Amino acid sequence: MHQVVNIKISTRVIRPTPLREALMKLLKLKQPVENYISESIITGCEVFGQQKLLIEKKSSKSVIRVIQTGHIRHLVLNTKGTNLIQSSMNMSNTFDPVDEYSSLFFTCLIWNDEPKAILILGLGAGIVPRLFRKYYPMIQIDIAEIDSNMYEMAKKYFHFKIDSKMNVFITDARKYVNSINVNYDIIFLDAFNENDEGTPFHLRTIEFLFKLKTILNNKTGVLVTNLHGSHKYYSNSRQTYSYVYKYNYAFKGQRNMNVMLVSGDESLVPYTYQEMINRASQLQNKQQFIFNLTSEKTRPATLAYCQLLHAKGEKQEEVNVGIADSSSG
């Protein structure tokens, strides 16, 4: 998630540059190339085509846009003029993940494939809770989202809806965690700041990570955090997690942007890489995910770039091990 998209909304003057002029000449375009190009969340390469602004909603907290490009719909944050894609949905098949992180999240099920209660900190467009509800119709899902506009956008434009076992609480994630006396099998930390900070500072402190540990079930609980590998605080965040949690498994997407960090103590059995593959294959056969949890070149390969972070107290060594070679094909 969190890619930059160029959106033509205003009539601002775009000064020509040699690169723009060369592209316009090559493509025989009559308008600036920015009017035609957007970044595809699917492939990470440039796609040509007009974008349609479906809605823009402003509040004291945010400026949120919903943009449609072909059959892909994007939830875009523009509070600080960044036009960052927060979530995307394939409107032709709303359960087929567009974003890598949506399917990367499911790697946590390698350790607990039958969760009974999960907490999601940060709703976005509601992609992950919708997917989870599809494959786990009976589990309890609680969601904390600070921005009511985000919740309204998710409902109106991304087919998100609550049910008797899915609740949305409009509040800051830290305030919610401090106010409850509930235990979860999975906590998904997916809050995001619209700048180079990534995860908001108050949600990545040692104190908060220890607090999350207190509401995880001792034997089954895992924390899953969506990190952005290119953010300047990524390395510091990894060090903080390794201090708080005994085991941290990092699953990288094919574009090496999203890193899904699965953290825990006794709940995270230190499987070998092959054991993880075997358990993922069994889970794939059991749940019949529309995405492939083990290896697939045409969609995010959620285990193709698994990194193992050794237990704290040992030398932290990351080893790239792959199932599929994404550089070919």
Structure explained in plain terms:
- This protein is of the alpha/beta class and 329 residues long.
- It is 23% helix and 24% strand.
- An 8-stranded mixed β-sheet has the order 10-9-8-11-12-14-13-15. It has a 5-stranded antiparallel β-sheet with strand order 1-7-6-5-4, covered by helices on one side. Strands 2-3 form a two-stranded antiparallel ribbon.
- It is globular, with a radius of gyration of 20 Å.
- Strand 9 (140-145), helix 4 (148-157) and strand 10 (166-170) form a beta-alpha-beta unit.
- It has 2 domains: 3-90, no CATH class; 100-309, 3-Layer(aba) Sandwich (Rossmann fold).
- It has helices spanning 18-27, 100-104, 127-135, 148-157, 173-179, 206-214, 234-244, 273-287, and strands at 3-4, 37-39, 46-48, 52-58, 63-69, 72-77, 84-90, 117-121, 140-145, 166-170, 186-189, 222-228, 247-252, 258-264, 306-309.
Any low-confidence stretches, pLDDT <50, length ≥5?
1-20, 22-48, 296-329
Provide the spatial order of strands within the biggest beta sheet. 10-9-8-11-12-14-13-15
Order of helices and strands: EHEEEEEEHEHEHEHEHEHEEHE
User: Which CATH architecture of the largest domain would you pick?
Assistant: 3-Layer(aba) Sandwich
Superfamily (CATH H level) name of the largest domain: Vaccinia Virus protein VP39
Largest sheet: number of strands, sense, barrel closure: 8 strands, mixed
> Which word captures the global form?
globular
- Output the number of helix runs: 8
CATH class division of the largest domain: Alpha Beta
Helix fraction, binned, reads: 10-25%
CATH fold naming of the largest domain: Rossmann fold
Radius of gyration: 20 Å
Number-wise, the strands total 15
Cα(first) to Cα(last) distance is 23 Å
How confident is the prediction overall: mean pLDDT? 76
Q: β content, as a range?
A: 15-25%
Structural class: alpha/beta
How many distinct folded domains?
2
